């Protein structure tokens, strides 16, 4: 690369860095991201030079990607913001799915109401987990394993209770059984496109919530707890209450994704919604994208899910995609522990565009 | 933690305790004895499966998600060598164990060692990634078809109580492994160094122990133990590339029950899960015993997070 | 102004067998600056933690501002108006300095989701007050250690507490910044905030404290103005260590040194000191001491993160016992760890017998012959005594040598013979120390670095600790010893370094330290 | 107007070279788009209008069809893949044999091509893979073994208006909960098969003079096992059989305790409902405990209809009575297909695999009868068709309005000399029951 291009790119980087320091930067970036997402389904059809995005990326895949972006964003509030690493978010996901489907199947209660009931149930279950774990001061691995156990517990309970559908679970009823027909009110559509916009709207809501939290007093308290719980208590933050709030909010929103899942995929079973892998799929985009950031979970999901999909589609040998996926996980954790959101900065560092890292004041202090 | 006598464990297992603990209408004496035998055999295998996991956890504070996958790798190594040579699979078990030691060292070198100081979730994700890589590679190399060792094992029995030979061999391997590991940890300088590192990581530096090297050794041994457990399981049942999952989740439970890092704890935890499973399957409908297992798990986590035989809380 | 704002009565807190606070009754007047001093391990930090709800007291009560707050959660106590800082500055690292301040829980300021203008203004005021607005948008992990201390103070000020407990607010802070902190403290105090502070730096205390309480062994020794307290011989004892004769000055102590150091082996009635015979047998197995220093550190600079602790110090081991003294936070321990290779040196060089070992880790140094005893002894609690000793000989490959060393170590510490099968954690404090020494002997090192072997031991055992150190010397080793108990340590010291603020204040023969007041001044950094 | 004709290079017939197919499909996409632009009337509603990238679609200028594509959607990896890969192979074999015989006659010997994708047994991939197969030019779909996956996949077929003939998926709900216009199931559902089993199995035993009054159920504790269990709970008492013990097994589990509890209950018959592994474990444990009930039976049991598995289980399996869908032993073709299958893929055919083959035969018959590669035509044909030329042990396949096969049948087998032999109904029987 010639030094000229280097320096001009470096200028771009510095502009970008300046921009990132502005308070409107994140909302603007989010606006751009959501703008793209709104027109993305239409972009799938555009064909350029014989290659259209649609041959590789389907609407269904985008929906699944958004589902995981959404859950990761929800998970992030508890684990990324507050530092309480949950390995059992499938519990909340599953409760959302079951709350919705049970009510609509057995009592013809509108799934939107069912979703909220499921979400409240999930929040309550989250509170139960939180009260028990925080009361007994479980941290680190122990907390993660406990959340996993609470999720597995639900799976086996439902698996063994016939009234809850047992292992066969539920199939979602037809829209005419509880509403006028397919449509927004019924939470059922005859094509994928409305589903896409529903989950996009969900993502917009949870992202807004996450963004507001990120920039609010409440969020600062959560971060303080994550950084140093004792110090947080010492400056008066009611840590127990705030940790519980974070769990409840996170669980509440995660349940929506379960409800969406149930209405989109028609059937739910303990095996599918409480699956061990769901726990991983929920948290992975946040880690890959950047723990504790608002943009990270969305970017992460758009890397993790489509990449594994594209690998699956383009590698002839079944199973190779999982190897690629596994390698990706390992490489990202090893080489980019701060996630995708840190890539611009890392690139800049790599190419030597960064300002001298030494800070005048820090130097001043240490040399004194 | 590792030092407590293993013999003490077996005294926990007197039939009387178990029979009263179950507290449900008792079946014929033979049936009860038969169930006890099964519980013991299953518990032994579970204990063996948990050994490697607990070792890596105790010394390195790493939860190894790839543990199940390492077990599966060992199964296929033994199976391939045995099918290729026509010899009994038993002779290849030691080879698989050694091979897995090497695999463990490699995994540690490339994935764990660089991030030993990073937050715990990183190690969890990395080992999860390793698991995917291993399982899918095995799937591609060997197809998903179930396999079994080509040996014919019957059962021995007396007075209406049967002991399947496969289970018996597995238990013998399990006990041998525990004793062997115990001797290694108790009687050799290297073994002591591992226990010392687990006990007081910073203290270990001051007697000249290179704890980085101990980490390598530990991960290698953990993988080797996974390999041993893996190589023994086909004596009991058929296997396919996915069988590791089932044992992995149970192993998590066992390790926490017994106390992270505790060898006797792993055996005790294995026995508890073995008993809950066998008696739960017998007396409770469907898979309700699984609910029991996770309830016990949560209770222990809350009330005694250091585990039943765990010394300290990390 | 004379109301009592904070009052504890008979506050007790123990950890296992260790009684950290043994019935402390203390009252703090509203508006005063109350300093708590006392040697390491005297229970000061535990006292803070117990008052502020981080520990549950075993018994006793805490009243604050007319209200019983015993057993409250720590965050509630903070909101009630009793703030505290931590000894090790604990900023919210991923947040900016400003966010650190805004993260303080202030119910009264603003409401709802938004951070109120008032709160932002308040944060700006505090940034101004502490003269750190220029770093407001830096992440807290990127600022210097001193700035972190300022932030720690600023953060608690956001809470506008009536009373603030400060745990060593100036530890590791350069003098210029220290003055700034003191200036701020005075200003805030004048505005009506009560301060209780733990502090080791006597200049700080003389500068600011209205009243001083002295802790020792979990109890209050005395109370009074700075002058009163420092004049009190009990305080000197608490700091410099008990002397057999309470009226004896340092000079008296030192006059004993000559006689004693040559004949330690024969001293009367040491609890477990072996007879000389074993010692001479061993001497032949160990390299004969050279006259020059084996372990030499030159211009060592080191610290943690961006916190510089040691600012260019040269030390070396010498024949006999080399003592490093200095108040808490002066960097003694860090220096020793740096010599052992535990904390890598940022700059400077380390050599062992002329060989450059600057880049070595501790395990490599042990192999060469430099062994460290960490402050807590670093023993393996879940391993038996025998196993601890065997691991001490981890670097030994020859079983015969191992056996020989084991005999030597057991001859040196025969009390361990009966305990060989017991777990390390089952031993008493003194026995654990013994084990730690014996285990160190097993390494066969000829330079030992001892980090306060007497810390946390009953006074009666302190002598034993020194006895053990001299035993190592008898076996041909050079010993570097960190010690709080200056008086006692001077008895056995052959060479002395005194540190303060990470810099060397004094080095030389202990006999030159005849004037106790000089020593106190040097030591306390007045 | 048929816009769904294919413009494939006839040389692209190797089903495994999917990558080259995609490349070609992508190129064809430009032409397709151009076609759309010039032809406003392109409103057949098969999804081309919304641009789902059906690259194989070309303007309607070309009426000749060289290839008709079957999209096969099965678990090729994951814990269902042992059976899934074989089912996929069975579909391929059916196409291969058809092509060897000269292809689709009514389309001038057009080739049948199978494109396969891996759904990993995951629900979210069911629809994903179905969509990809449609995008890659599938004219008709089949799959998916796991019922939730099939459920998801059939919705895509319905939306895209591509006919979907279920290879194997036993869950009643797939067709019975929602009316679907494009989905067909040749095999009997779980309910149907369990009822047949509860009725016929005890009858056969009683005819041989064996008392069958009590039963013990052994099932895999997932959806499939539980739904068969639930039906048997109703149907067995109706046929004079009392259930005296129920015991379940999990994925990857062993069956020792279960056998002890069955032994303790001592029923006249043990009915096993599991995948291969569960029954292998059951029989191994029985062997180990030297226990054998008067009658061993299986309902929708995969192992007892798999000669490979039977050989591995050994002697103890002999005499077992199993109800399942299966292949028609009275046809020579059946034996040829079995032989060819093991030749081509070095695998054995169990009931699921055989049924998949038969489903593929139904698809091919529909294409032949439709004389068209157009999904709409094939679908219309499926509604009316009566497929007699298949190797399943069933009368001619013909679909009800809900898509279920009117003549779906679970037959009763008995394991004799470690081979599964049909003993009832009579029209397919190849052997007499022996006890």
Automatic annotation (TrEMBL), chain A:
It holds the Pfam family BPD_transp_2. It is found in: Cell membrane. It is a multi-pass membrane protein. Coiled coil: none annotated. Its main location: membrane. One of its GO terms (molecular function) is branched-chain amino acid transmembrane transporter activity. Keywords: Cell membrane, Membrane, Transmembrane, Transmembrane helix. The chain crosses the membrane at residues 24-44, 50-70, 90-109, 115-134, 141-158, 195-213, 244-262, 282-304, 324-343. One of its GO terms (cellular component) is plasma membrane. It comes from the Archaea. PANTHER family: HIGH-AFFINITY BRANCHED-CHAIN AMINO ACID TRANSPORT PROTEIN BRAE, HIGH-AFFINITY BRANCHED-CHAIN AMINO ACID TRANSPORT SYSTEM PERMEASE. This is Branched-chain amino acid ABC transporter permease. It comes from Natronocalculus amylovorans.
From TrEMBL, chain C:
Residues 258-281 are annotated as: Disordered. It holds the Pfam family ABC_tran. Coiled coil: none annotated. Residues 6-242, 295-526 form the ABC transporter domain. Gene3D superfamilies: P-loop containing nucleotide triphosphate hydrolases. One of its GO terms (biological process) is L-amino acid transport. Belongs to the ABC transporter superfamily. This is ATP-binding cassette domain-containing protein. It comes from Natronocalculus amylovorans. The lineage of its organism: Archaea, Methanobacteriati, Methanobacteriota, Stenosarchaea group, Halobacteria.
């Amino acid at each position: 690369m010639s030094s000229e291009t280097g320096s001009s790119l470096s200028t771009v980087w510095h502009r970008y860095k300046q921009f990132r320091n502005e308070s409107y930067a994140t909302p603007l970036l989010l606006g751009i991201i959501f703008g793209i997402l709104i027109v993305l389904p239409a972009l799938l059809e555009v064909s350029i030079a014989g290659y259209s995005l649609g041959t590789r990326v389907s609407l269904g895949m985008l929906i699944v990607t958004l589902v995981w972006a959404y859950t990761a964003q929800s998970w992030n509030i508890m684990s990324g913001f507050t530092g309480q690493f949950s390995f059992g978010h499938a519990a909340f996901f599953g409760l959302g799915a079951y709350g919705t489907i049970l009510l609509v199947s057995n009592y013809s209660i509108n799934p939107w109401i069912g979703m909220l009931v499921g979400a409240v149930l999930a929040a309550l279950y989250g509170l139960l987990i939180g009260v028990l774990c925080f009361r007994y001061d479980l941290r680190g691995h122990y907390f993660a394993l406990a959340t996993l156990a609470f999720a597995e517990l639900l799976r086996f309970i439902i698996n063994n209770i016939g009234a809850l559908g047992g292992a066969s679970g539920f199939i979602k009823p037809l829209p005419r059984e509880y509403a006028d027909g397919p449509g927004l009110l019924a939470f059922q559509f005859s094509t994928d496109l409305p589903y896409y916009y529903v989950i996009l709207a969900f993502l917009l809501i949870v992202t807004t919530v996450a963004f507001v939290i990120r920039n609010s007093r409440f969020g600062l308290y959560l971060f303080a707890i994550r950084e140093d719980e004792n110090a947080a208590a010492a400056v008066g933050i009611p840590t127990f209450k705030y940790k519980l709030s974070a769990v409840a909010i996170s669980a509440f929103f995660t349940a929506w994704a379960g409800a969406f899942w149930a209405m989109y995929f028609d059937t739910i079973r303990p095996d599918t919604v409480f699956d061990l892998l769901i726990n991983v799929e929920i948290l992975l985009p946040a880690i890959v994208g950047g723990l504790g950031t608002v943009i990270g979970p969305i970017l992460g999901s758009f890397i993790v899910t489509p990449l594994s999909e594209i690998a699956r589609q383009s590698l002839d040998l079944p199973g190779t995609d999982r190897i690629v996926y596994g390698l990706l996980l390992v490489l990202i954790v090893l080489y980019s522990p701060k996630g995708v959101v840190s890539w611009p900065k890392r690139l800049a560092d790599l190419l030597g565009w960064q300002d001298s890292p030494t800070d005048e004041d820090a130097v001043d202090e240490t040399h004194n | 933690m590792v030092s407590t006598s293993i013999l003490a464990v077996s005294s926990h297992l007197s039939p009387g305790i178990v029979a009263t603990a179950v507290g449900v209408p008792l079946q014929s004496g033979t049936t009860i004895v038969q169930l006890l035998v099964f519980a013991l055999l299953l518990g032994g295998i579970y204990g063996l499966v948990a050994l490697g996991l607990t070792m890596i956890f105790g010394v390195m504070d790493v939860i190894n998600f790839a543990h199940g996958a390492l077990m599966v790798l060992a199964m296929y190594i033994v199976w391939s060598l045995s099918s290729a040579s026509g010899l009994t699979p038993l002779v290849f078990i030691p080879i698989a164990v050694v091979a897995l030691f090497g695999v463990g060292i490699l995994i540690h070198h490339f994935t764990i060692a660089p991030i030993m100081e990073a937050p715990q979730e990183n190690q969890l994700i990395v080992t999860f990634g390793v698991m995917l890589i291993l399982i899918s590679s095995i799937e591609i190399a060997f197809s998903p078809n179930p396999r079994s060792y080509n040996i014919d094992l019957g059962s021995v029995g007396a007075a209406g109580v049967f002991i399947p030979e496969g289970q018996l061999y597995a238990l013998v391997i399990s006990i041998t492994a525990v004793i062997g590991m115990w001797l290694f940890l108790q009687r050799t300088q290297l073994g002591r160094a591992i226990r010392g590192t687990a006990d007081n990581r910073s203290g270990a530096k001051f007697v000249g122990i290179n704890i980085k090297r101990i980490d390598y050794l530990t991960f290698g041994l953990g993988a080797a133990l996974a390999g041993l457990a893996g190589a023994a399981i086909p004596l009991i049942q058929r296997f396919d590339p996915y069988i590791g999952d089932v044992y992995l989740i149970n192993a998590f439970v066992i390790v926490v029950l017994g106390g992270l890092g505790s060898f006797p704890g792993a055996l005790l935890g294995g026995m508890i899960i073995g008993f809950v499973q066998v008696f739960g399957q017998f007396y409770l409908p469907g898979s309700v015993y699984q609910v029991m297992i996770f309830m016990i798990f949560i209770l222990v986590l809350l009330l005694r997070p250091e585990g039943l035989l765990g010394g300290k809380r990390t | 102004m004379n109301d009592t704002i904070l009052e504890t009565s008979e506050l007790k807190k123990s950890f296992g067998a260790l009684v950290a606070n043994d019935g402390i009754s203390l009252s703090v007047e509203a508006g005063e600056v109350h300093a708590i001093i006392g040697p390491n391990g005297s229970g000061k930090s535990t006292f803070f933690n117990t008052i502020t709800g981080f520990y549950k007291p075993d018994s006793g009560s805490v009243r604050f501002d007319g209200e019983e707050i015993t057993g409250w959660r720590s965050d509630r106590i903070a909101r009630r108006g009793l703030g505290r800082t931590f000894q090790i500055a604990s900023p919210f690292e991923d947040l900016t300095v400003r966010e650190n301040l805004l993260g303080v829980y202030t119910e009264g300021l603003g409401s709802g989701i938004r951070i109120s203008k008032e709160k932002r203004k308040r944060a700006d005021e505090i940034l101004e007050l502490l003269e750190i607005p220029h770093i407001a948008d830096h992440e807290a992990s990127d600022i210097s250690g001193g700035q972190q201390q300022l932030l720690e103070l600023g953060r608690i000020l956001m809470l506008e507490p009536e009373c603030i407990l400060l745990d060593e607010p100036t530890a590791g802070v350069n003098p210029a910044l220290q003055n700034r902190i003191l200036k701020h403290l005075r200003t805030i105090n004048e505005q009506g905030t009560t301060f209780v502070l733990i502090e080791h730096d006597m200049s700080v205390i003389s500068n600011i404290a209205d009243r001083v309480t002295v802790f020792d062994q979990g109890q209050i020794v005395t109370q009074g103005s700075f002058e009163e307290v420092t004049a009190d011989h009990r305080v000197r004892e608490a700091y410099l260590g008990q002397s057999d004769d309470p009226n004896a000055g340092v000079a008296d102590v030192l006059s004993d040194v000559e006689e004693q150091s040559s004949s330690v082996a024969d001293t009367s009635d040491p609890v477990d000191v072996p007879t000389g015979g074993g010692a001479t047998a061993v001497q032949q197995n160990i390299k004969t001491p050279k006259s020059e220093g084996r372990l030499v550190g030159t211009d060592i600079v080191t610290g943690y993160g961006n916190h510089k602790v040691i600012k260019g110090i040269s030390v070396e081991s010498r024949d006999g016992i080399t003592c490093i003294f200095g108040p808490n936070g002066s960097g003694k321990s860090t220096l020793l760890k740096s010599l052992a290779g535990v904390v890598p040196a940022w700059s400077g060089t380390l050599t062992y017998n002329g060989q450059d070992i600057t880049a070595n880790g501790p395990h490599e140094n042990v192999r060469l012959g430099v062994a460290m005893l960490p402050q807590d002894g670093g023993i393996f609690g879940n391993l038996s005594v025998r196993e601890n000793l065997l691991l001490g000989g981890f670097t030994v490959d020859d079983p015969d040598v191992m056996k020989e060393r084991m005999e030597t170590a057991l001859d040196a510490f025969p009390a361990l013979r009966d305990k060989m099968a017991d777990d390390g954690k089952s031993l008493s404090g003194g026995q654990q120390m013994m084990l730690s020494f014996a285990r160190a002997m097993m390494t066969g090192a000829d330079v030992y670095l001892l980090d306060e072997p007497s810390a946390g031991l009953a006074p009666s055992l302190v002598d034993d600790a020194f006895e053990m150190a001299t035993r190592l010397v008898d076996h041909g080793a050079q010993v570097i010893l960190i010690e709080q108990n200056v008086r006692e340590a001077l008895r056995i010291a052959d060479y002395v370094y005194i540190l303060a603020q990470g810099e060397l204040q004094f080095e030389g023969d202990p006999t030159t330290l005849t004037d106790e007041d000089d020593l106190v001044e040097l030591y306390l950094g007045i | 107007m048929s816009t769904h004709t294919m413009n494939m290079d006839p040389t692209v017939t190797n089903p495994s070279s999917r990558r080259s197919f995609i490349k070609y499909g992508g190129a064809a996409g430009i032409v397709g788009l151009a076609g759309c632009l010039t032809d406003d009337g392109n409103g057949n509603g098969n999804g081309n209008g919304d641009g789902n990238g059906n690259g194989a679609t070309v303007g309607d200028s070309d009426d000749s069809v060289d290839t008709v594509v079957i999209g096969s959607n099965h678990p090729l990896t994951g814990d269902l893949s042992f059976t899934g890969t074989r089912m996929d192979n069975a579909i391929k074999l059916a196409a291969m044999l058809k092509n060897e015989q000269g292809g689709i006659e009514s389309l001038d010997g057009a080739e049948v091509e199978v494109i396969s994708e891996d759904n990993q047994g995951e629900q979210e991939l069911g629809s994903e893979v179905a969509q990809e197969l449609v995008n890659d030019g599938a004219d008709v779909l089949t799959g998916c073994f796991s019922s939730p996956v099939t459920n998801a996949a059939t919705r895509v077929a319905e939306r895209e208006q591509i006919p979907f003939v279920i290879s194997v998926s036993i869950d009643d709900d797939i067709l019975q909960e929602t009316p679907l216009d494009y989905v067909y199931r040749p095999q009997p559902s779980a309910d149907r098969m369990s009822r047949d089993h509860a009725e016929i199995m005890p009858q056969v035993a009683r005819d041989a003079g064996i008392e069958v009054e009590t039963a013990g159920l052994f099932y895999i504790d997932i959806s499939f096992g539980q739904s068969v269990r639930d039906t048997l709970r109703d149907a067995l008492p109706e046929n004079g059989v009392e259930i005296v013990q129920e015991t379940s097994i999990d994925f990857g589990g062993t069956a020792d305790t279960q056998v002890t509890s069955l032994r303790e209950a001592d029923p006249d018959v043990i009915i096993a409902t599991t995948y291969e592994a569960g029954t292998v474990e059951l029989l191994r444990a029985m062997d180990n405990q030297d226990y054998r009930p008067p009658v061993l039976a299986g309902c929708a049991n995969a192992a007892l209809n798999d000669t490979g598995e039977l050989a591995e289980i050994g002697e103890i399996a002999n005499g077992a009575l199993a109800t399942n869908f299966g292949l028609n032993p009275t046809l020579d073709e059946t034996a040829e297909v079995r032989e060819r299958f093991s030749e081509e893929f070095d695998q054995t055919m169990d009931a699921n695999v055989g049924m998949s083959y038969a489903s593929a035969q139904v698809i091919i018959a529909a294409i032949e009868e439709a004389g068209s590669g157009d999904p709409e035509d094939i679908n219309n044909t499926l509604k009316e068709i009566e497929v007699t030329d298949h190797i399943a042990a069933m009368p001619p396949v013909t679909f009800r309005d809900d898509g279920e096969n009117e003549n779906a049948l679970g037959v009763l087998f008995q394991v004799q000399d470690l081979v599964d032999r049909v003993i009832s109904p009579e029209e397919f029987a190849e052997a007499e029951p022996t006890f």
